[in-house]
Amino acid sequence: VQRHLHFLTVLLLLVLWAYLCSHGDGLRALKRTTGGRRGVALTLTGQDANGVPLRRSKRGWMWNQFFLLEEYTGLDNQYVGKLHSDGDRGDGSIRYVLTGDGAGTLFIIDENSGDIHATKRLDREEKAYYTLRAKAVNRITNTSLEGESEFIIKIHDINDNEPKFTKDPYFTHVPEMSPLGTVVMQVTATDADDATYGNSARVVYSILQGQPYFSVDPNTGVIKTALPNMDRETKENYVVVIQAKDMAGQMGGLSGTTTVSITLSDVNDNPPRFPKTPESSEPGSTVAVLRATDADIGRNAEMNYRITSSDGPAMFDISTNRSTQEGVITLRKPLDFERKRSYTLRIQVENSNPDPRFLRYAATTDEATVKLIVEDVDEPPVFDRVSYVMEVKEDSAVGTIVGSVSATDPDSSRSPVRYSIDRRTDMDRVFNVHPGNGSVFMLRTLDREENPWHNISVIATEFNNPRLISRIPVDIRVLDVNDNAPTFAAYYETFVCENTKANQRIQTVSAKDADEPIGGHRFFFSLAHEVSGKANFTVRDNKDNTAGILTRRNSYSRLQRSTYLVPVVISDGDFPMQSSTNTLTVRVCTCDREGNMQLCNQEALVLTAGLSTGALMAIIICVLILLLIVVLFAVLRRQQRKKEPLIISKEDVRDNVVSYNDEGGGEEDTQAFDIGTLRNPEAIEETKQRRDIKPETLNPPVRRTVVLPPAYRDNSDVREFINQRLQDNDQDPTAPPYDSLATYAYEGSGSVAESLSSLGSVTTEGDQDYNYLSEWGPRFRKLADMYGGEDSDGYRDS
């Protein structure tokens, strides 16, 4: 449709241009081209007042597109069109100028090429079209080569606005019991998109909430009643949600919603009625109140009520409210609307304190007839039994009907009942129930040995009122079938002596079966048929579900064969018969004359003591684990007690580099300090004593006399400074170890040594005499060894 409209627009412009050219009215004509950038040169002509033809230079306009899409999201400026004059020879002498709506801000023109671009995103809802004027001028003289040409840029609409309702919410009312199709109200939604282009503004209405009571016309938005005779006494207020969707309701359209609150107004459609007694009333509840009047006052106006007759024996009782003197009728038994819908009572009232003087003149009692009407209450379905017990064989196929349940609606409406299974009682979904007839059937196969009973609950729901439900337990028993073969009752393994005799019993075996036949188990034992001809042992059935294993030879050789495997076939007596072959292990051992075992393989000895191979392996593994735990514990305790060495290996020098903001005594100083303390100097206790000196209380510090070299003897301030620092370090229990170097930024005044740093020294080691370092005590021993010319072993502590 858009392409056809576009083609018709172009055709109309061509016809208009031809008409203007033929009549010579002097108006400018523009032609729009839809493909490429080919220009069409137009010769515009006219006449003056004297009829002399006027001519003007030809000019052609080139457009990429006449319409622009709104909300353009491209990164570059949107291309609008091209302005071109036939006088433009491409030498740059012509400059194009654009004026009008948004010129220079929204729309810009390339003064050399005449290309027009839009610089911003345009919104049709803000401005639908722009009127612009363009002209070509001489770049040098700035004179217009032609008159201005006016053109319009129309913004193409896109669907970027959703429909909006004029109100939200709406409130209205409609009379109850209105016929089908009664108009309730009309809602209106507007769309800001262009209604003349496409379906962006074509709105279609639909109802999201409020069915099946109301409907809405998709084109007009008129809301009507969809059900006749809606009763206000049943439901008074309705909430309807209406949706308006553009694009004629097609997929991808935008939508808006509104809420309509509809109230049913009352009409006189109910006659007055006396109150009724609901059948759901509990025994002891009040069903009616009577009031008799007495002209007397005070004690003389007190009265008593009693029931003299009733068509429902022992159904009701009456008592007197002493504060109001009213007769209160209460219920003694449950009511049932389906059995009896009304009751008639004869009530008598009399004075509680009659005056004997006036008994002969006036009656002291009065009677009234009371009719009680039972009101029907919607009750849940009622099952015909209190519980159900069903049976099914374990080999039954999937889909087999196990049984059925039945429930009916006790109300007079006799609403249909729908059945379902409470899945909380059947999590594995073994059973299901037919929703219509209540037949319970299987969804999965059964195994009596795994679960002999299944306890499920069946729910009965009233079809017309799903809120009314009843549930009943259903117990399903799985009947046994003979689908398991008998086996040995235990693992049997025995031994036989080498010097045994034939037909000697060496073992008694029994059997077990997972099935439970009604008549009890009956097992048959025999030797496997394939070995019966060359068997070394025989099987004797004891007819009591046990069998004896007998020897068949007079002697057995342990050296020739130490172990025999006896295959025993066990069969049951049920139908179909099930059987299995079980193996008895017999080991050959050396025995004494009394038959006591003396020599056998190790495994047989263990088994004789009552331990199997698996049990023996478990014991050995446990012992090994306990031994491993003990060893690990001992190793850990030993490592905790072991002192950490200063250097773990010669290659690992990381423990030698200790950062504690002071220089240590070197690699030889390993006995005077704890390496763990140096690694964490902040964690040292303030009261911890050094291990290389005696405590102050036992051996007070001795002031040392340091012999300075002759160059430093005249510097009294330096000598005093060093002596003070030595004394302080000797008295400090937390000071670094002995052979440590403490550096102080103090050289005294007029130091002859100048800087102690070797970086700026221009002399060699041979130019200096470091022998005096050995006289400074043990703290400078390492320096004396490194720089001194002779060993300084002769020092002593001062």
Automatic annotation (TrEMBL):
Chain positions covered by the region annotation Disordered: 265-285
One GO CC term on file: adherens junction
Keyword hit for Repeat: yes
Membrane topology designation: Single-pass type I membrane protein
GO molecular function: beta-catenin binding; cadherin binding; calcium ion binding
Domain Cadherin: 85-165, 166-274, 269-383, 384-488, 488-599
Highest taxon in the source lineage: Eukaryota
UniProt keyword Nucleus, yes or no: no
InterPro entries xref list: Cadherin, Cadherin-like_dom, Cadherin-like_sf, Cadherin_CS, Cadherin_Y-type_LIR, Catenin-bd_sf
Transmembrane segments annotated in the record for this chain: 615-636
Cellular compartments annotated: Cell membrane
Keywords: Calcium, Cell adhesion, Cell membrane, Cleavage on pair of basic residues, Glycoprotein, Membrane, Metal-binding, Repeat, Signal, Transmembrane, Transmembrane helix
Pfam families the record matches: CADH_Y-type_LIR, Cadherin
GO biological process terms on file: adherens junction organization; calcium-dependent cell-cell adhesion via plasma membrane cell adhesion molecules; cell migration; cell morphogenesis; cell-cell adhesion mediated by cadherin; cell-cell junction assembly; homophilic cell adhesion via plasma membrane adhesion molecules; morphogenesis of an epithelium
Role: Cadherins are calcium-dependent cell adhesion proteins. They preferentially interact with themselves in a homophilic manner in connecting cells; cadherins may thus contribute to the sorting of heterogeneous cell types.
Protein name (database record): Cadherin-10
Species, as recorded: Oncorhynchus mykiss
